[in-house]
């Protein structure tokens, strides 16, 4: 019997989640992490570079087994899944792999201290979940691998045969259709080094605010272009009028001399 026939003939029993703690109301750990999380989520939704539907979220638990502790990435991205509409139902308020039918494609951890074990047990947990790309952003160089003289701000891993293999720059996530890059700039009046989505050429994916600025600049440029065209047209009209007046004066002068300007 095929897998599809099993699905058609047997009742699928999903785990009982009534006793699971899906919301612990714990705050994020610092201002930087909170801003960085929103930076990534905002750009994913406002840029419209990803085909709908998808879910990008921050600090939401990913449950992958009834008796297993969830993983809670700082940011995750899951493609081809629809955000549940009825959030009054507990099974719609967290990411249950058995409900969505797949793990997220990307999980991102933003390191804030040396206690998170992002390069140890957390990495193993995400591999067990089946997350295709695991990202560790260490903006303050809190962690580094054994024997590494200089820490790396950004590490990106791809799941290969059940284990993570570290990618080299540029960090292009092939099955996602997005890349990741470090960007020096200001987000919400806060300067710093930020982790951002990018296209294959390394160009950052803009946030909603940045898109608004670009649209305003585009509109201002178009207005300036239109004004320049109008000024050019006015100048041309004035030149043509001047030439017409000059021709009229010449014709009048010729007539005063007894010469028909139409036969000259």
In words, what does this structure look like?
By secondary structure, this protein is an alpha+beta fold. It folds into 2 domains: 3-206, tt1808, chain A (Alpha-Beta Complex); 207-264. 32% of the residues lie in helices and 22% in strands. The chain is built from 5 helices and 11 strands. It has helices spanning 3-9, 31-46, 97-100, 121-129, 208-256; strands at residues 54-58, 62-63, 75-79, 95-96, 106-110, 133-137, 154-160, 163-166, 171-173, 178-187, 190-198. The strands form 3 sheets. A 6-stranded mixed sheet has the order 1-3-5-6-7-8. A 3-stranded antiparallel sheet has the order 9-10-11. A two-stranded parallel sheet has the order 2-4. A hairpin with a 2-residue loop joins strand 10 (178-187) and strand 11 (190-198). The protein is elongated. The protein starts with a helix and ends in an 8-residue tail after the last helix. Residues 1-10 have low confidence and may be disordered.
Question: How many helix segments?
Answer: 5
Measured as a percent range, the helix fraction is: 25-40%
Enumerate the spans where pLDDT stays under 50 for 5 or more consecutive residues.
Answer: 1-10
Give the CATH architecture of the largest domain: Alpha-Beta Complex
**CATH topology (level 3) name of the largest domain:** tt1808, chain A
Q: Based on DSSP secondary structure assignment, what is the total number of beta strands?
A: 11
- N- to C-terminal separation? 101 Å
Largest sheet: 6 strands, mixed
Give the overall form: elongated
Order of helices and strands: HHEEEEHEHEEEEEEH
